[in-house]
Design brief:
Largest sheet: none
Structural class: mainly alpha
Low-confidence stretches: none
Shape: elongated
Order of helices and strands: HHH
Number of strands: 0
Radius of gyration: 19 Å
Helix content: over 70%
């Protein structure tokens, strides 16, 4: 089941979207759906990271490098 969402964008953004659609051969709606998915994934990751940060700090993980070193 799908839902229709109407949004307003300015002319500059419409032009960029139109150019991307022509360049990639993909419909504008597909580009917008992918952009929304990507942005929501980023925000979800950032929220999760914020919630887990105290637990990592308690383990002595203060930077991304600390985490990568531990899991590598």
């Amino acid at each position: 089941m799908s839902t229709t969402l109407s949004i307003r964008i300015d002319k500059d953004l419409e032009q960029l979207l139109e150019q991307a659609a022509k360049r990639t051969g993909r419909p504008k709606s597909e580009l917008v759906r992918d952009a929304i998915r990507r942005q929501l994934s980023i925000e979800s990751f950032q929220q999760l990271r914020k919630e887990l940060l105290p637990y990592g700090e308690a383990q002595g993980w203060l930077t991304d490098e600390d985490v990568f070193r531990e899991v590598s």
